[in-house]
Specification:
By secondary structure, the protein is mainly alpha-helical. It has 15 helices and no strands. Bound molecules: fe (ii) ion (2 copies).
Length: 273
């Protein structure tokens, strides 16, 4: 069996990783790094910089429409949040041009799950909306990590209906586990790591269960609103029960569905930036 955790920790040494991603990963492990280093890295890549600013204006960061550049984003959101957003956005670039359409679809799926998780968090606050949004945005990061490390084998199962079983057969770990390891290595907050790790199964989730349930339900709701091949969760009777058990109502589904449909042009055009 492979040493997946070891491979993830040496991700930045892989030749196909873009320089900007390598430098971002390096600043994470450098305790002397500051927002000046971070801004320099992000600004070097205009497309990344524009996308970080676009995400910083998402409703969960409380400064919607007010942030025009990276300095403002760092000033208003803080170093940690901007760094998390930059890593979230740049990780999707790892899928590269060969997987252009699928990259966009996986991004759209991920952004939608983030959006829904943030909206659910407005109804039943389990943590800040910003943290729920990021956890949703990053929930499938493990699929990108598997692809980056093991593309020849993984490409065939990445969007398979039985992706979890196939991954476990290949790597003895699913993408929730692999995503959790990547985020642990990248020093993300513990609650985001827990939500990503348990987004397919809440079994064994002891700590930060509220956010894990939120992302688990957000994923199922996204498949209800916008079915895609890249979606890997589905709405079921069990999830419906869990939804109502957490104090949510039928009207909440309708309200969230309306917002997802309104946001859809922004989501679809994000990678054209
Ligand atoms: Fe997933
Ligand atoms: Fe997913």
């Amino acid at each position: 069996m492979r040493d997946i955790q070891g491979d993830i920790s040496s991700l930045k040494t892989i030749s196909t990783i873009p320089v900007v991603m390598k430098r971002l990963l390096e600043t994470i492990n450098d305790e002397n790094s500051s927002f000046v280093d971070l801004s320099e890295i992000i600004q070097h890549d205009q497309s990344l910089s524009e996308r970080v600013v676009a995400i910083a204006n998402a409703p969960y960061f409380w400064h919607s429409g007010l942030i025009n550049n990276l300095e403002q984003a760092t000033l208003l959101l803080g170093y940690d949040l901007v760094r998390s957003i930059a890593i979230s956005v740049s990780v999707f670039d790892l899928l590269g041009k060969d997987e252009g359409r699928r990259m966009k679809e996986l991004w759209a799926h991920s952004y939608e799950v983030g959006l829904i998780a943030g909206l659910l968090c407005d109804k039943v606050p389990v943590t800040s909306g910003a943290v729920c949004f990021l956890a949703g945005l990053l929930h499938d990061i493990g699929r990108v990590i598997f692809y980056t490390l093991y593309a020849p084998e993984y490409r065939a199962v990445m969007f398979d209906e039985a992706v979890i079983e196939k991954e476990t057969g290949l790597f003895d770990a699913d993408h929730g586990t692999a995503g959790g390891w990547f985020l642990e290595y990248s020093l993300f907050p513990e609650e985001i790591i827990s939500a990503v790790r348990h987004h397919h199964s809440l079994k064994g989730c002891e700590k930060h269960k509220g956010i894990a349930v939120t992302v688990h339900l957000a994923e199922a709701l996204s498949s209800l609103f916008t079915p895609r091949t890249e979606a890997d969760g589905s709405w079921s009777k069990d999830k419906e029960r869990l939804f109502y058990k957490n104090g949510l109502k039928k009207e909440d589904i309708d309200h969230i569905g309306t917002i997802v449909r309104q946001e859809s042009p922004f989501i679809e055009n994000f990678f054209e930036m």
